[in-house]
Design goal:
- There is one protein chain.
- This protein is of the alpha/beta class.
- The protein has 11 helices and 8 strands.
- An 8-stranded mixed beta sheet has the order 1-2-4-3-5-6-7-8, sandwiched between helices.
- Strand 7, helix 9 and strand 8 form a beta-alpha-beta unit.
- The longest helix is centred in the last third of the chain and has 18 residues.
């Protein structure tokens, strides 16, 4: 993977790319979750690099892509488009994990001709009808609630809540380590707050696959995924023995699910 970066008025965005030698190989873009970074997909990179062009990135306001001003999912989608244009990539398969599903969906909504398919990994849908006023109110309370947690307790509870295996727990702890408590709270507040602001109805013409950890207890993710699948007809596949960080808890099944989905496009 080659480390590169792009620049905008908002800040510098870092990304990593492996160009497959086969110029006809599809491109997969992996987008990580809240308070995480590109390394969240290290279990996927080696698996897919032999057959695909692979991109991971530190989403604006995360990882090395800090500081970053005026964060929005619309702007984040624009940054991803700039990356793809720089790399002369015309079409991609999007894999969005948790919060990573939001910039993925906004990108797909704004630039549908650039998307071949979307894999929603332990994430939730855009769409006004899915969320009650109470749901959106609670999203805005994440920041003030997090402030009450002592620093060490906040980190441990976050890592424990998303993981079912020692690997996922340790990886989440590792990704949180460079962040101050204030950084974590800021990312939570802005990311969830922006979703409440930018949420809108979206309709995708390309294939979508929803992957959900069997033991995902993060907020109402499991409930939203099931309703999403029922409403749209998108297939919903359960990742066995996994919590919210499903691609870390059970990478073998997640990788196989992604590979089958892409092969079927």
């Amino acid at each position: 993977m080659v480390h590169k970066q792009i620049h905008s008025d908002n800040g510098t965005v870092h990304y990593w790319i492996h160009h497959n030698e086969n110029k006809n190989a599809r491109c997969i873009v992996f987008t990580h979750g809240l308070t995480a970074d590109n390394s969240m997909f290290e279990k996927q990179i080696d698996f897919f690099a032999s057959d695909y062009t692979v991109i991971t990135w530190d989403v604006p306001m995360h990882g090395l892509s800090r500081p970053y001003t005026d964060f929005s999912y619309k702007q984040t989608a624009a940054e991803l488009k700039t990356i793809l244009e720089k790399e002369q990539i015309e079409k991609v398969v999007l894999v969005g994990m948790s919060m990573g599903g939001y910039p993925s969906q906004v990108f797909a909504d704004r630039y549908p001709d650039m998307v071949e398919g979307f894999i929603a990994l332990d994430t939730t849908p855009f769409g006004v009808a899915y969320y009650s006023k109470t749901d959106l109110w609670w999203l805005r309370q994440v920041r003030p609630i997090a402030k009450w947690f002592p620093d060490n307790m906040l980190r441990k509870s976050m890592a424990k809540s998303v993981s079912k295996t020692a690997y996922s727990y340790q990886k989440m702890t590792e990704m949180l380590k460079p962040l101050t408590k204030e950084d974590i709270i800021q990312q939570m507040g802005i990311a969830y707050g922006e979703f409440a602001v930018e949420n809108k109805d979206m309709d995708f013409a390309f294939p979508v696959l929803i992957l959900l950890g069997e033991h995902d207890t993060t907020a109402k993710v499991k409930q939203y995924c099931k309703i999403w699948a029922e409403k749209t007809g998108y297939p919903l596949h359960i990742i066995k023995g996994a919590a919210h960080f499903a691609n870390g808890d059970n990478p073998d099944q997640v990788n196989a699910e992604i590979a089958r989905f892409i092969e079927g496009l």
